[in-house]
Amino acid sequence: MLENNDATSHQAARPLPRPGRDASWAVDPTIAVDPTVADLERPAAAGGPYGLGGPASDAIPVLSARMLFISGERVLIANRRGRSWFYLPGGNVEPGESVEAALRRTIREKAGLATHALDFVGCVEHTFVESGQSWHEINVVFAAALPAFAQIGSREEAIDISSVSVSTLHTFEFRPTYLRTAILRWLRTHRPSWYGPDGLPRTTAGPH
């Protein structure tokens, strides 16, 4: 997938929130009322190029590794200048490369950040059409605490990476389509999920 926002924050990182240990995420009213989280059992409408339906038979498969960086109650999101939608920093997995190695490489190349301990957020399946070509993308998403005193920014001229409040995520259009749902659900529950093209989560085994 090809790769404004409120002011950038340089808060020091804190440990990632865990269910029952950090109630501030669970009671956030914005997260509770976000329609993509509050109505997770409602099937998505059929049709449309962005995650609404199965992949076309001629779709090219792509595997991508994405990072959810967390600092306090803020997260990092990326945007290609001139586009209205946002995504998580990261990039495609190269042939012969592991997902974790690709994640660390692309985050270092594109944001100049090192990644350490990782938590598995889940996978988001995404189908789209670009320049007449159908693509079937699997986004493998991990989370990590943003290093203290990290310099937030992009090393690519056409891309912006910014820190935004979790309470404002409902105002952004994301691609893959159900990425926002996956982020907000994981922040509330810390239970990894798989999101298919219909947008419904298939929860995987995880901490309770």
Automatic annotation (TrEMBL):
Stretch list, region Disordered: 1-25
Domain Nudix hydrolase: 55-189
Cited Gene3D superfamilies: Nucleoside Triphosphate Pyrophosphohydrolase (3.90.79.10)
Pfam families reported for this sequence: NUDIX
InterPro entries noted in UniProt: NUDIX_hydrolase-like_dom_sf, NUDIX_hydrolase_dom
Gene Ontology molecular function terms on file: hydrolase activity
Annotated Polar residues bias: 1-11
Listed cofactors: Mg(2+)
UniProt keyword annotations, A-Z: Hydrolase
PANTHER family: GDP-MANNOSE MANNOSYL HYDROLASE (PTHR43046), MUTT_NUDIX FAMILY PROTEIN (PTHR43046:SF14)
Protein name: NUDIX hydrolase
Organism: Candidatus Protofrankia datiscae
